[in-house]
């Protein structure tokens, strides 16, 4: 069963695939490592927690595995302009011991930070369905256009 909660998901693919799931306020919802996880398994895990708004990766050239998962949800991949350094990952995920989870968490946090100002702006609005609006903005919709053109349809 899919929860209606919208999410930012970081994925670190490999023999051991790490994942980190944030809510749209940047709070860690879940994280873990799956050994030899295929695309279907990662999609299943993500669906357990909600609907992803974006998938993050820690490398400048998004891995095929991450792009496939994003395509399954019809969402974009957030990737840095240059690979996130080990030092930066340790700083972002200083309380996370597992390297795969820390890499995934760093990717999710960097994706969140990209949208953080707009998400905070939405949080301050007196509207319904704030998370739906946040999801649309992360998807690439312009905030003003969604509010104006839809006459509150998403609010």
CATH topology: Nucleotidyltransferase, domain 5
Q: Strand tally, please?
A: 5
Radius of gyration, whole Å = 15 Å
Spell the H/E element sequence: EEEHEHEHHHH
**Under the CATH scheme, which class?**
Alpha Beta
- The number of helices is 6
**Multimerization status:** single chain
Which whole number gives the mean pLDDT?
Answer: 92
Regions with little confidence, pLDDT below 50 for 5+ residues:
none
Helix/strand-derived category reads alpha/beta
Would you identify the CATH architecture? 2-Layer Sandwich
Helix proportion of residues, in percent?
Answer: 40-55%
How far from one another are the termini?
24 Å
* Tally of individual domains: 1
Overall form: globular
Q: Quick one: CATH superfamily?
A: ATPase, nucleotide binding domain
Strand content: 15-25%
Strand order of the largest sheet: 3-2-1-4-5
What's the story with the biggest beta sheet?
5 strands, mixed
Q: Could you characterize what this model shows?
A:
It is a single chain. The protein has six helices and five strands, in the order E-E-E-H-E-H-E-H-H-H-H. With 155 residues, it is an alpha/beta fold. It has one domain (6-115): Nucleotidyltransferase, domain 5. A five-stranded mixed sheet has the order 3-2-1-4-5, with helices on both faces. The chain is globular and about 45 Å long. The protein starts with 5 loop residues before the first strand and ends in a 6-residue tail after the last helix. The mean pLDDT is 92.
């Amino acid at each position: 069963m899919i929860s209606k909660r919208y999410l930012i998901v970081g994925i670190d693919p490999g023999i051991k695939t790490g994942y980190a799931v944030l809510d749209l306020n940047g709070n860690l919802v879940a994280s873990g490592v799956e050994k030899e996880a295929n695309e279907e398994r990662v999609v299943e895990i993500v669906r357990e927690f909600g609907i992803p708004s974006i998938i993050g990766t820690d490398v400048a050239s998004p891995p095929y595995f991450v792009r496939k998962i994003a395509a399954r949800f019809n969402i974009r991949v957030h990737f840095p302009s240059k690979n996130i350094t080990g030092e930066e990952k340790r700083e972002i995920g200083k309380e996370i011991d597992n390297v795969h989870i820390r890499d995934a968490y760093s990717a999710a946090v960097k994706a969140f930070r990209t949208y953080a100002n707009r998400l905070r702006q939405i949080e301050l609005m007196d509207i319904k369905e704030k998370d739906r609006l946040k999801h649309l903005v992360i998807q690439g919709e312009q905030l003003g256009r969604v509010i104006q053109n839809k006459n509150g349809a998403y609010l």
